[in-house]
Each structure stands twice: as structure tokens, then as C-alpha cells.
């Protein structure tokens, strides 16, 4: 699998750092990161991302679900949700946006690796 450019949207600094380190240890690049919807929109316009990993709950008034809607409408970049949310209504709304995968927190390196691999496989099949 080639090296992917991955953009991370996570508002918890410790989780963001661990996620970045894990992505790099898996052999991929982190092409940017953000803590909020608005920062992500600005950053993603300039990043050359192959994949976005986003939390559902973000800093500010907009959520990862809002970000997913924006991505689908304007950017067409595959995304993965990585979240600790357990509220069924929120999870249902998130899943309706069409994420390629949903990886629960706490971060599991193997689950993330599988999600990235599956994302790449889907991109190859549908391109």
C-alpha cells in the first residue's frame, strides 16, 4: 500500500498527538491537523489529503458530522470517524454521512491500520 497523506481533526491534544504518531508509525504522512470544523475547512482547502480522520465531537459549535457533510459536498475526500461517542442518535447521524469506517476510542493501532487499509482498498476498487 502506498503512503497516504492523512489529515487529522481532533480537539483533544493528547489524542491528536497519539493519532499523529500512530499514523506516521504505520508509514503514512500527516498532511495537516485541526481542532475545529472551521480550522479543518481552512486547512483541508490547502492540504493534499488522501484521507481524513475526524472525531465526531469537535471544539466549537460545529461537529464532525457537520464536517462530514461539508467534505461530501465540496471536497470528495474519504473520511473515517474515530470517536468515543456512544449516543445512538449522534452515531446514526454520523453513519448517515457515509464514512468509510468508524473506529472507536480509545485508539487501537490495529483497528486504525485496518481502517486505513480498507479505505485504500475501497479507493482502488472505486477509482
UniProtKB/TrEMBL annotation:
Keywords: Phosphoprotein, Two-component regulatory system. PROSITE patterns: RESPONSE_REGULATORY. This is Response regulator. SMART domains: REC. The modification 4-aspartylphosphate is found at residue 55. Coiled coil: none annotated. PANTHER family: PROTEIN PILG, STRESS RESPONSE REGULATOR PROTEIN 1. Residues 5-120 form the Response regulatory domain. The keyword Phosphoprotein applies. InterPro entries: Bact_response_regulator, CheY-like_superfamily, Sig_transdc_resp-reg_receiver. It comes from Mucilaginibacter mali. GO terms for biological process: phosphorelay signal transduction system.
